[in-house]
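Complex record, two chains
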Amino acid sequence: NAGVMQNPRHLVRRRGQEARLRCSPMKGHSHVYWYRQLPEEGLKFMVYLQKENIIDESGMPKERFSAEFPKEGPSILRIQQVVRGDSAAYFCASSPRGSEAFFGQGTRLTVV
Amino acid sequence: AQSVTQLGSHVSVSEGALVLLRCNYSSSVPPYLFWYVQYPNQGLQLLLKYTSAATLVKGINGFEAEFKKSETSFHLTKPSAHMSDAAEYFCAVRGGAGGTSYGKLTFGQGTILTVHP
């Protein structure tokens, strides 16, 4: 059973471009969480999704950020018109209901 | 609302010495508490978790943590540090059962552990 797969591992975007981060949860996991880790800081919750539903997006910036977890395929975190302050490591975690989350290796986004 | 405070952003110990990483939490519901370890440029690996069973929790790599409700603490310890323990450690609290916060983790700021030969 493969772990949580995130791709790409590293992503470089110019200011104003779009960034798409993908997360394939572990087999059998229907809950996905996205976290952001800014330099020298801990992880901050962004969004919690189940298949085709956003359950809690209280940590998502109001503009430019969106997330989805379609019926088929990976979960996608999308950042439009990236700015330098979006440079961070973005982690996805998945879990079955009622258990601990397993984390992916992260996507390190650099905005130049 | 929940929060986690890790006391000390950097801890340095000698190889073979006791490791003590401090974590205090605040939670309006009985908490589920976790310690994770992160090696450079890697994801987070679960060390151990407290889920309201035994207050002394044993984890991987010789780590353990004790839940003390009266002190709202969940400190991580290891009797003898190894060089391979050098990493960043995060304490986290999870939302209670039910509601939209279930499963969402709130992390502390992290503690970087350095182990000297």
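Note: Chain B has a mean pLDDT of 90.
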